[in-house]
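Suppose you are handed only two things: the residues of a chain and a line of SMILES describing flavin mononucleotide. What would the bound structure be? This form records exactly that question and the answer produced for it, so the two can be stored side by side and reused later without any lookup.

QUESTION INPUTS
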Amino acid sequence: MNTLVELLGIDLPIIQGGMGNISNAKLSSSISNAGGLGTIGVGTLTPDDVEKMINEIQGLTNKPFAVNLPIKVTPFIHEMVELILKYKVPIVSLSAGNPAPFISKLHEHGVKVMVVIGAVNQAVKAEQAGADVIIAEGYEAAGINSPFETTTLTLIPQVVDAVKVPVIAAGGIADGRGLLAALALGAQGVQMGTRFVATQEAPFSKEYKNKIINANDHNTLIIGRSHGQIRRVLEGDYASNLLKNEGEYSNQEFAESTSEKHHLLGAIEGDDKKGFMNSGQIAGLISNEPTISELFEEIMQDCRKKLKNVVNQINL
Ligand SMILES: Cc1cc2nc3c(=O)[nH]c(=O)nc-3n(C[C@H](O)[C@H](O)[C@H](O)COP(=O)(O)O)c2cc1C
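ANSWER OUTPUT
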């Protein structure tokens, strides 16, 4: 039995990862309406912007949705928690920081709390602090990444063995095989980011979507290692230059060069000379731009079919 879908009140074990500043209510509501869990990404948005987005999504779906709060990224963490309580948002995912100070307040108001981690000890600490769900994100993933560089295949079984709460696998999953593999490793669901970029409902530039669709398995770069601000992005003039010259930047200059301004220029304006585009390594597998419901149907059918293949192989 899948306790994750029961806990979150969703039909399919597929979660949209937060995509701060650039995703919107249309994409997240489409994911929730198709049976998954849509997530509003807060990024560095103001409380007013997020309030508008919560209002909008509540008008577009009656199904559960989540809000992602990247703790060290948002300058408005306390205001965001108040908004979540005001609008009775059912589920929150906490990433990029220590979740412990926020969990009990959210729980007092009945909010389910998922915590994104990149290492086993972080998962154990998050569970001790009261997390209802652990999202274990491997190094394949798009966007800000863990300095430990642990991959999904190695991270998931170790986290599953270390905690009792349901685990969601994130990083490197885009189809039914990925879902099946995550379930086989002991996760109860998957969180995807890169796959959702190339969908009809996603509000991103044609250039961004096409770059994902045309990418191969090694078209992503890790930038920011020398500044302890690790991020996986698509190759492109801006990102490749940043990588080449990052040793010459101060931490502050590097943070400015990877600010939301440059994220928007890449992802929304489609300008890879002035901005960057987040992407995971799984971009190489993505070759089309389906609707969310087409994508979910294909993932679930493919997962069931591939399970039969696996069973046949074991019986041989
Ligand atoms: C465009 C984009 C923006 C992202 N922004 C955030 C964010 O604001 N907060 C966060 O916790 N994760 C963020 N991520 C990571 C995703 O939530 C998700 O965990 C990750 O993409 C999963 O790996 P995948 O890309 O291989 O599917 C972002 C990913 C993408 C593609």
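WHAT STANDS OUT: Residues 17-20, 22, 41, 43, 68, 70, 95, 116, 137, 140-143, 170-173, 191-195, 197, 267, 278, 280, 282 surround flavin mononucleotide (CB under 6 Å). Residues 11-203+285-315 form a domain with the TIM Barrel fold (CATH 3.20.20.70).
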